[in-house]
Amino acid sequence: MLASxxxxxxxxxxxxxxxxxxxxxxxxLARDNPPPPTLDQKLGAMILAGFTGQSAAPSDQxxxxxxxxxxxxxxxxxxxxxxxxRNISSPSQLRALDAQLQSLASSTGQPTLIIGTDEEGGAxxxxxxxxxxxxxxxxxxxxxxxxxxxxxxxxxxxxxxMRRAGLNLNFAPDVDLNVNxxxxxxxxxxxxxxxxxxxxxxxxxxxxRAHHDNGMLTTLKHFxxxxxxxxxxxxxxxxxxxxWSSVELEPFRNIVHDGLADMIMTAxxxxxxxxxxxxxxxxxxTITGILREQxxxxxxxxxxxxxxxxxxxxxxxEQAIALAVNAGADILxxxxxxxxxxxxxxxxxxxxxxxxxxxxxxxxxxxWTRIQKLKxxxxx
Length: 380
Fold this sequence. Notes:
Elements: H1 39-44, E1 47-49, H2 61-69, E2 73-75, E3 79-80, E4 84-85, H3 91-107, E5 114-117, E6 119-121, E7 124-125, H4 139-145, H5 148-164, E8 169-170, H6 197-213, E9 219-223, E10 238-239, H7 250-257, E11 263-266, E12 269-270, H8 284-294, E13 300-302, H9 309-312, H10 317-327, E14 332-334, H11 342-356, H12 361-375
Parallel strand pairs: 1-2, 1-14, 2-5, 5-8, 9-11, 10-12, 11-13
Antiparallel strand pairs: 3-4, 6-7
């Protein structure tokens, strides 16, 4: 990336010892009276997509998506579903890739590009040792220690690694409660800090502060809580109606209240008590009703990957887009898509829905405002 706007602190710096600490500000690029955005620019900002490639040129699909379709952000992976190499092979390669991506965005006068990845630690770490990055530990490991200073130290080193590589957003921490330790996608992988919402809150806030202090923004996931599930939403429909409880909202509520949330990602879980018709990602009752109105969150909401089985196996491509945006989602994530046309397809669907009134332009403007506020805090 072009330059860092935040200094790197000593990894042994402890977290704040007392009082509620509001999130630190990460400056973005100064912009002098930019022209009003076009509809295409506003819609492109709502798309965050993956791509295949370890470099990025204007003629590559990702270059076309950034320069012509105003793609708002990218999600990087070390592999594609099926084990195909994806975006990450070494620290130097990743640093060069991210600089190329950011240059593509800046050459067209776009705001800072979101460049994110899943770096939770442990089993979910895209910047892993096999590619020359430092080792990490799982959320479960840190939750068992239950010491904010230890969590801060580990998270600070993680954040520094990410910033050196040119990333600016971590799709972490996972604040799901470990309600079901055998949960195949959360508990069994050590992704939850604890079953205790106070421990999850404490560890997650130390994790977030460490990232903010080292130039990274973060993502709370998976709202309204994926920890009680008995199935994996990557693979298909997941019903938590009989296992979910409102205590799973507490980490989200606490972190939003403490002013530390940057972005919140939804879960593709179905809960008939919250919405009898739709999973959380597509549910206005859940995103707007609970997250925005009850918990008071007016920042960016991102979907989990829309190509996951829980969505793609049960809803049409265009139908899911309309439902998610009208539910209150601001960013549509297509993280592990290998299709060359996913970004123009999403953009075309959004434009069609605005044209026919299915989605109002006022609703698009809400998302644009939230996304630009988030991007103004991204390090570049």
